[in-house]
TrEMBL record:
InterPro entries: CheY-like_superfamily, OmpR/PhoB-type_DNA-bd, Sig_transdc_resp-reg_C-effctor, Sig_transdc_resp-reg_receiver, WalR-like, WH-like_DNA-bd_sf. The lineage of its organism: Bacteria, Pseudomonadati, Pseudomonadota, Alphaproteobacteria, Acetobacterales. Keywords: DNA-binding, Phosphoprotein, Transcription, Transcription regulation, Two-component regulatory system. This is Response regulator transcription factor. One of its GO terms (cellular component) is protein-DNA complex. GO terms for molecular function: phosphorelay response regulator activity; transcription cis-regulatory region binding. Residues 133-232 form the OmpR/PhoB-type domain. It comes from Siccirubricoccus deserti. SUPFAM superfamilies: C-terminal effector domain of the bipartite response regulators, CheY-like. It comes from the Bacteria. Gene3D superfamilies: 3.40.50.2300, 6.10.250.690, Winged helix-like DNA-binding domain superfamily/Winged helix DNA-binding domain. Residues 133-232 bind DNA.
């Protein structure tokens, strides 16, 4: 079955041109011109990945993402304008997996979509270095790659694809420092450029999710100027 991509943007020219490109590449595409209709459509019929503009009528991309994340870990790419740096960071903190700045290359968007879909599929399969059965247990942490689930002290932690891959990369080697480049490779794949602040924003959101379940969570440590490491409890 071809993957289904949801495009949400109030610019009909973007919807038309990007839809044509994606359909030519074999994807199924559903389009929405505002956040409210997109929310209704995606809750009724989930897509494999969504591309969201930030500034839209009726419900902007930020609110749409926030509402979607209450129900779904579907990969999300944000489209932002050059003057929306704050929005980019806020989007990542709300749970976006990636962002692209307008005006954008459709080839770049296609590469990012394919990379996210590959990561989503890989995160559900047994990865190299993962114990048999796709289960990683580190003290109170249990990651199940096959089911794409994360449990901390008996609490389900809802992680996006990017967040899951970051936690996995750190948990596979407790005590070992991972610099930002290594985490970018683990979460986004090689040959994909991502700013360092993107990783920092994802880590902050991961910590927030764990601390909602456990105020004392401190397993992901920051080594300033170096990177991050997982401290096994």
């Amino acid at each position: 079955m071809p993957a289904t991509i949801a495009l949400v943007d109030d610019d009909r020219n973007i919807l038309t041109s990007v839809s044509m490109t994606l359909e030519q590449e074999g994807f199924q595409v559903r389009t929405y011109t505002d956040g409210e209709s997109a929310l209704q459509g995606l809750l009724a019929r989930p897509a494999d990945l969504a591309v969201l503009d930030i500034k839209m009528p009726r419900m902007d991309g930020m609110e749409l993402l926030q509402r979607l994340r209450q129900r779904s870990a579907m990969p999300v790419v944000f489209l932002t304008s050059k003057d929306e740096e704050v929005d980019e960071l806020m989007g990542l903190r709300l749970g976006a997996d990636d962002y692209i700045t307008k005006p954008f290359s459709q080839r770049l968007l296609l590469e990012r979509i394919r990379a996210l879909l590959r990561r989503n599929e890989a995160s559900r399969a047994e990865g190299s270095g993962t114990p048999a059965g796709g289960i990683i247990v580190r003290g109170d942490l249990v990651l199940d790659e096959t089911k794409h689930t994360c449990v901390w002290k008996g609490h389900d932690i809802q992680l996006t694809v990017t967040e899951f891959l970051l936690v996995k990369a750190l948990a596979l080697r407790p005590g070992m420092v991972k610099n930002r480049d290594q985490l970018i490779d683990a979460a986004y794949g090689e040959n994909i450029y991502v700013d360092d602040r993107t990783i920092d924003s994802h880590v902050k959101r991961v910590r927030k999710k764990f601390r909602q379940a456990d105020d004392d969570f401190a397993q992901i440590e920051t080594l300033y100027g170096i990177g991050y490491r997982y401290k096994e409890s």
